[in-house]
Records
---
Amino acid sequence: VWERFQTTAVIVGSSVLLQLIVGFLLALLFEKAFPFRRILLMLVLTPMMLSFVAVGAFFRYYYEPTFGLLSQAIRLFTGQPFILLDSPTGALAGIVFADAWMWSPFVMLLVLAGLVSVPKYLYEAAEIDRASWWRRFRTITFPYIKGLLLLAILFRTIETFKLFDIVYIITAGGPGSSTETIAVYVYRLAFQYFRTSQSSALVYILLFIVIVLTNLYLYFVKRRAAEA
């Protein structure tokens, strides 16, 4: 059980961090107006509208060593097929990339909402004072998006902690049990091994962890409101 919890923690930490970085960079990109911005924004938001099964099936074929796009691209340089999912590290990386590809646009939307809400006169005053880009970000931009970033971290941590569909479709928990998350393990216990009592106990543990994460978020929100 603890091995599955550790695997889940690695996937959650890596995926949420990657989503925050990519989502923040995309929000900075779409904050400014440029040609074909609306069309490009629609394309970027498309992964978030797909189902987990569709994303899992897409990346399963994307990572396929015989005709997958990733293997074909690497074959041009090495002359050999590339099998990403044959090692625990590669399989974890494949799952993290698939989940981040799907949900980075969600983080982007939250951050973009915060960036748009920043009053323009604050940036104008900072330019008059000749403040650097980092100082403007730290003193003006970040306070406006900090609450939304916390909300994004909460939502994505809870959802990634329950990740099942993508993992089961891409790797089925393999190789071995190296990518078997706690959600996949609960499914196996309940529907393959018929150990319903143990699976029910694990579900209660998952519920407790989600409640703890939610209360931590509410604590930080209340503390931020008190400081304001």
---
Amino acid sequence: MIAPHNDLYEFEGFVLDAGSRILLRDGAVVRLTPKAFETLLVLVRRGAQVVDKEQLLKEVWPDTYVEENSLSRNIHEIRKALGDVSSEPRFIETIPKRGYRFVAPVKVPATEEIKLTENRMPLAVPEAAQSTRRRKPTAVLVVGALILGLAIAGFVVFYFGRGAVYFRFI
């Protein structure tokens, strides 16, 4: 039976926040690609159940054909992020010719215990992780201002430079 969809999952010092799409280790953000995050989320939600490779491919890449190499790369990335090794798995066990299983005990906190801010970021998220989301619009504004400034400077140089050349020949 598939576990109900919750927002937070805790296992061995990690917190997987499905709502905010982040993985935390002792409060620090662990970087994963979006597809690696999806793969980990599917495995964690299934608990100790074996998830067939085909099922993982369908859930992580719906309506898209991808080869098993993509799944293998995701599993490798997840293991690296979690500090796991395939020869002695603490988190993800490979079931040969079949699929994968998440073997670490997963705790799903009760909903009443979880206090989220309005933007659905858990209160445990360090300020640095929250500020990265705020920096993106600022970076876009800075780049936009630079482009606008260059466009204005180019126009001024072209317009006045052309006029100066034109008047020299008169």
